[in-house]
Amino acid sequence: MQKLPLNILASLPLGELRYFDTIGSTNDEALAWAIQGAPDCSLVVADEQTQGRGRAGRRWITPRGTALAFSLILRPTPAETNSPALVTGLAAISVVEALKKAYCLEALIKWPNDVLIGRKKIAGILVESVWAGDCLDAMVVGIGVNVLQESQPAQKELLFPATSLEAELSAADEKRHHDCNLAVDRWRLLREIVATFLEWRPRLGSEDLRNAWERYLAFRGEPVRVWTGSEQPLIGHIIGLAGDGRLRLLVGERIEVIPFGEIHLRPSL
Ligand code: BTN
Question: What's the gap in Å between 218 CA and the centre of ligand 1?
Fold first, then answer.
């Protein structure tokens, strides 16, 4: 696949850009660059990641030319400093809406931040922070999207089934409008995700953002199991989000509000 055409990002209000043919992890590069003073909205993009990282210490390998892997550096606004967890939701909404705008694909969010199409994972998000003492100095929003089928790890290595942009675009779907894009173009998707993120960013903490995140929740109304660290999962039905983005789960007759953290959520059916 084609290398990053720089003009594709030209109209976006970004900081600086670093592109790598190959790198360990774009998040590691972005964290180091943030410490050295990267300006707000600087972007690290790589064609290949050899040491990419996922949540809970998992690996996220990005084989050359097959996927989208990038990290956006934020100098936090007051709203982001107050509610850093919402940045995760903001990133997930941006991926969902970009897939819709660029490809007419309907994606949903497995709370808090995995992006699914047809109950399979197409994208993952890893948000990390840089602290200067007690002060949140920077946040790094790392996003990985499976673009070609080769980008998906073998199913047996996965905790959750995966899909790719290529697989979803080639799936027969009569509902897709004739002017929906069919060409797999990861740089177009990159542009759309970053543009959508920047459009939503000033509304972090707003009712609008929470509503969008809630609207895109996967498994809503379905029985799910949620592991919050303890051995036994909570079994309940997703009923929505609290004002601060925590998950509301109906367990029997009581409502549990699930905090952010190392959460595992699975459909029960
Ligand atoms: C997950 O689902 O566990 C999160 C995966 C996040 C992967 C992206 S790819 C770009 C960025 N660099 C990394 O090392 N990780 C994130």
Answer: 20
